[in-house]
Amino acid sequence: MKDFFKQNQYWLSFFLGIVLSLSAYLFNPFALDIVASKAVAVAILMVVWWITEALPIPAVALLPLVLLPLLNISTFEEASKSYSNPVIFLFMGGFMLGLAIQKWNLHKRIALHIVKITGTSGDRIILGFIIATGFLSMWLSNTATTMMMFPIALSVIAVMKEHEKPGRGMINFSLAIMLVIAYASNIGGIATPIGTPPNVAFIGYIEKKYGYTIQFVDWVLLCTPIAIVLLVALYFVLTKWLYPNHIKSSNETNLLINSQISSLGKITTAEKRVLIVFVATAFLWITKDFINGLNLVKLDDNMIAIVGALALFAIPNGAKDVEKGKMLLEWSDTSKMAWGILLLFGGGIALAAALEKVGVIVQVGNWLAGFSQTGGFTLVLLIVIISIFLSELMSNTAQVIVMAPVLAALADALHLDPLLLGIPMSLAASAASMMPIGTPPNAIVFGSGFIRLKDMLKAGFVMNIISIVVITLFSYFVLPLIMWVMN
Predict the structure, then answer these.
(1) How large is the C-alpha radius of gyration of the chain?
(2) pLDDT tens-place string over residues 12-33
């Protein structure tokens, strides 16, 4: 029987998606209208094929271009707009920065120095990445942070592979360090208003509806404790439970690291120029709000990423190696870029837009209102569960934009402070860990080749459960106390 499933895995996965999708449409268990039922059927088909990998994941992401117009859910023009969403150009620019860092071996130099500082045991390196990524994500967007750490992590893996025996330990180390970058970026981002787009979206809505501005410091006091607890949990889950690596520090390893640093020699002209572009791009990401406040120009993360990428094509590399071209980056270098991830994210945005258009998210909010009589704790728990798992399938920013009005109306009807329902929803929207399309950082690291979908599903499910428990308990028991003290 096992051999039968293995030999026929493709056909079983392929038809499983079709059967479940058609069943959802024909039986309509949620009593949706016809158009909404079609959209849910498309979502089920895509999710099943993503999970089972019946088709290549980027290929599945193209389904909305065919199915949404075919089923009269949206036009081809509407669906195709999602594949040119601004955040996709943020990905593109970030990937190109990563390519340049790798092309000129700057990533290896940075990685060797990180390993030297943190120590060469697998767990200490992973802890170093958790701390660095989580802290950076508090001040940069979670996507920009992942873009910065991704090429560095790749090079650390390459360095460790040079002196570690191949096997389960090295596989687990590579997998864990990639997951850590995505998850720590998401978790660190919840600690500040600017750390992740859902925070910005929620705060903007509250200010518009109630005229109440959530202060930067207040948000940090409210949410940093949650971020710290989740980052600690992330370390123990990945290194001590799911993916232990057992890579120990040794004198031989330390000597090897030092010798490799020496062998790199002085930093080259090309490395310096790539580093300048990288630092300048990061500086603009950090200071863009201040710059925009001067009313001279209007910057956003996506534009800054493209400016950084264009600079790489325009700046001479100063190297004598003709094969590497004259500029820091040549267009031929982009053949190594993970173009499929851009399609994956576009498909996720298209699916999310369809679900919003047909009113599925609003119906979820109305369904939630039916639990308002079951008690405050149950209501907060349901909001967190729905928010975290819903954001696995759609843009978490779009989800917050749609759910914030629903929860605000619900809070007003129950005579509650809207923050008591909205903050847990917003935080949970950034904690999606199971699906590559759940958050941009998930999509970025999934393109590394070190993560299988089933690994992300397993680790993500555990982190989702921990996030649900931590966010719910904090939001119900601690959040009201902190708000009372601040007021």
Answers:
(1) 23
(2) 888 888 999 999 888 888 778 8
Is the predicted pLDDT of residue 371 greater than 70, yes or no?
Answer: no
CA-based nearest residue to 459, from 236, 143, 248: 236
3-state SS class at 327: strand
Which of these, 463, 449, 442, lies nearest to 185 by C-alpha position? 442
CB atoms within 10 A of CB 359: 16
| pLDDT, greater one: 23 or 102 | 23
Cα 152 to chain centroid, rounded: 17
CA nearest neighbour of 432 among 398, 406, 473: 398
Report the 10 Å Cβ neighbour count for 25: 19
In this structure, what token pair is assigned to residue 42? 């498309």
- What residues does 20 pair with on adjacent strands? none
Quick one: pLDDT band at residue 6, thresholds 50, 70, 90?
A: low
Residue 117: alpha-carbon gap to chain centroid: 27
Identity at 382, one-letter amino acid code: L
Specify whether the CB–CB gap between 118 and 128 falls below 8 A.
yes
**Six-digit token pair at 18?**
């079709």
pLDDT of residue 487: 64
How far apart CA 8 and CA 383 sit, in angstroms, is 39
What the block records as the tokens of 76 is 């081809």
Q: Report the pLDDT value the prediction gives residue 29, as an integer from 0 to 100.
A: 80
For residues 312 and 331, is the Cβ–Cβ distance under 8 A?
A: no
Nearest-angstrom CA–CA distance, 421 and 45: 31
| CA distance between the termini of the chain | 64
| 166 residue type, one letter | P
- Cα gap 71→452, rounded to integer Å: 32
Long-range contacts, 254-259 (Cβ 8 Å, 24+): 254/116, 254/120, 256/162, 256/163, 257/112, 257/115, 257/116, 257/120, 257/159, 258/116
Find residue 327's DSSP bridge partners.
316
Q: How confident is the model at residue 459, as a pLDDT?
A: 93
pLDDT digits (tens, 9 = 90+) for 175-217: 999 999 999 999 998 888 777 778 877 887 787 778 776 766 7
How far apart are the C-alpha atoms of 62 and 144, rounded to whole Å? 25
State the Cα–Cα distance between residues 353 and 200, nearest whole angstrom. Answer: 19
CB neighbour list of residue 137: distance below 8 Å, 6 or more residues apart: 145, 184, 185, 186, 187, 188, 189, 191, 195, 196
Asked if residue 425 lies in contact with residue 365, where contact means CB atoms within 8 angstroms, the answer is: no
Domain boundaries, the chain: 1-75, 86-336
For residue 92, pLDDT beyond 80: yes
Tell me the three-class secondary structure of 13-60, residue by residue. Answer: HHHHHHHHHHHHHHHCCCCCCHHHHHHHHHHHHHHHHHHHCCCCHHHH
**Secondary structure of 96-113 as H, E, C letters:** HHHHHHHHCCHHHHHHHH
Number of C-beta neighbours around residue 263 at 10 A = 8
Cα torsion 120, 123, 125, 131: sign? negative
